[in-house]
Specification:
The protein is an alpha/beta fold. The chain contains five helices and six strands; from the N terminus they run E-H-E-E-E-H-E-H-E-H-H. It has helices at about 10, 55-65, 85-100, 115-125, 130-155; strands at about 5, 20-25, 30-35, 45-50, 70-75, 105-110. A six-stranded mixed beta sheet has the order 1-6-5-2-3-4, with helices on both faces. Helix 4 crosses helix 5 (about 130-155). The longest helix has 26 residues, at about 130-155. It is globular, with a radius of gyration of 15 Å.
Length: about 160
């Protein structure tokens, strides 16, 4: 049975109170991956996956989730600034649906507006070179997405979780 793909707050009801979450920043060429601690307080970068074929990408994501004993995924949904969804959001939803067919871990969608821009500002502030920024930007965007989701869940006090 495919895992549910839901907005973050609804997906949280499918996750146990404890357990790591995997955050994803889906790009056309790469997937930035971050993971939380089991208490869901802090997001940390894991890696940047160079996209190949969906099955290979999904296999790597599921391996990371298994290594970290993850209980769910948080996928950044690229919503336009006016709140509408364009082709990138549709592509992200399709990826989420396909991934959900391979796992029982619920996928939470989280608004990722400006996550890459925020990650880039942070890296520039740390005086990271342009070449190095290009290597790590997606991983940092995934951290930004996941940390935002973790903070939102914490503000809810875990009320959405069983």
């Amino acid at each position: 049975m495919p895992a549910p793909v839901l907005p973050l707050i609804d997906a949280a009801a499918h996750w146990p109170r404890r357990g790591a979450l995997i955050g994803l920043d889906l790009g056309t060429k790469t997937i930035g991956v971050a993971a939380s601690d089991p208490d869901r307080r802090l997001a940390a970068g894991v890696e940047t996956i160079r996209r190949k074929a969906f099955k290979a990408d999904a296999a790597r994501l599921l391996a990371i989730a298994a290594e970290r004993k993850a209980v769910g995924f948080v996928l950044g949904l690229p919503i336009n600034m006016d709140g509408s969804e364009g082709p990138r959001a549709q592509s992200t939803r399709a990826f989420a649906r396909n991934l959900s067919g391979l796992t029982e871990l619920a996928v939470g969608l989280w608004d990722e507006r400006l996550s890459t821009a925020a990650a880039e500002r942070e890296l520039i502030g740390m005086d990271v070179s342009r070449a190095r920024r290009a290597e790590v930007i997606d991983e940092h965007a995934a951290m930004f997405i996941l940390q935002g989701a973790l903070d939102r869940l914490a503000r809810l006090g875990g009320a959405a979780a069983p």
